[in-house]
What does this fold into?
Amino acid sequence: MKLSIITPSYNQDMFIERTILSVLNQKWDFDLEYIIIDWKSSDNTVDILKKYEEKIKNWEFNNNFNSVNFFWSSEKDNWQSGAINKWLKMSTWDIVTFLNSDDTYIEWTLQKIFDSLWKSEKKWSYWKCKIIDIGDNEIRKYITLYKNIIWNKYSYSKLLSENFISQMTVFWKREVMEDVWYIDENHHLCMDYEYWLRIWKKYSPLFINEYLSNFRFYHTSKSGSMFEKQFKQELEVAKKYAWWKYKLALFFHKINYYKIVVIYRILSFFRV
It folds into this structure.
């Protein structure tokens, strides 16, 4: 089994080393393909990528996998979604995911993927995640608890009413691409939500009630600084997929939109 992880990045030298190590320090008996797409960063990101390219060449991580194929580039693409699509087309994988350059995996994440998704008839899976700050400390536990409660009863209709899937926990098999194709590059702020809705129309997911990764929140991140635009785009995407069949789900999404925007405004005001 070959697993491919794609990490898009731009000026993330504060976090990207922790992201890389959370991948390379995993242990399991399969091949890993790790691709990092940098968008012409002006900080020290490229130096960090060169550093780990050299470490892998020197076999420093080779005991963790059968083999590690590490690729990186630093060039301008059509933002995050365009960069991911570019490497999705070039990667050679059985299971794929993308991990943002400020998020991390927990120990044994990839082993759990092998033990669950790869051995399952399901085509994709999502898991639980924690929210961490810039110092790797868990924060916003009440939001994590809220999502965990929602996950106990999940359905396509519920996903249309609220985006409860954390992007960094989703893995999918190659067969998905044959039916669902690639990420829609028109949805920069909610490309993941649109993709989950598209996949779920074809394949029901495997949900694992375990923590798999850490989502890093800080107020200057895309999620922290552009949340109103993000949630508005998610509402527009929900309208696209709801049609007449899921009118009630769309009604609840509108309510959830105003609810979450108000909550995030309050949290942002108090810098929580």
Remarks:
- The beta strands are 2-9, 31-38, 67-74, 95-98, 104-105, 124-132, 171-173, 206-216.
- The chain is about 45% helix and 20% strand.
- The CA atoms of residues 160 and 238 lie 6 Å apart.
